[in-house]
Design brief:
4-stranded antiparallel sheet, elongated, 26% strand, minor pseudopilin epsh fold
């Protein structure tokens, strides 16, 4: 028996039409997947914004319990900062700070506030409780709204919307 390699046939290559068809199918798959990937990335950016804010809330609660003093989240023009409620606490380490990007905003609503137009502050008391609050976020990726419980300072989404 003789072992020889088979002779190449004239049809052992792809035609230009077959290559173009394969490229078109690949392009179609990429075009169909792109919006889904963009949506996942927008949802991740929204989740990251909530986690940044929630980290600051957790720090306010933790410091108020550990130090047995009230802490306050204050919205100013450039950032949301943690400050002790009592003045004259020069020995305290400064609190956290959340600086929103230029296209982000965090809005505070205090449903239990006794007066309209009250200062944009959120108080955490020495026992770890806080004033109930609703935080609204708007940014490039979309928006969300979370309600924070007074007893646990735990945030729960009311709504979330990607762009």
């Amino acid at each position: 028996m003789r072992l020889t390699s088979p002779m190449p046939r004239a049809r052992d290559a792809f035609t230009l039409l077959e290559i173009c068809l394969a490229l078109m199918i690949g392009l179609l798959l990429v075009l169909l997947a792109a919006p889904a990937v963009a949506g996942v990335l927008a949802e991740q950016r929204l989740k990251d914004s909530f986690e940044r804010f929630d980290h600051l809330v957790a720090e306010a609660k933790q410091r108020s319990v550990q130090e047995q003093r009230g802490w306050r989240m204050v919205w100013d023009k450039q950032a949301i900062v943690l400050v002790p409620m009592a003045r004259g606490d020069g020995g305290l380490a400064p609190g956290g700070r959340l600086v929103p990007a230029h296209d982000e905003s965090f809005q505070l609503q205090r449903p239990a506030a006794l007066q309209n137009g009250a200062l944009v502050v959120w108080d955490f008391w020495p026992n770890g409780t806080c004033e109930p609050a609703v935080i609204s976020y708007a940014g490039r990726a979309g928006s969300w709204e979370a309600r924070y419980d007074a007893l646990t300072a735990h945030g729960v989404f009311n709504r979330s919307e990607t762009r």
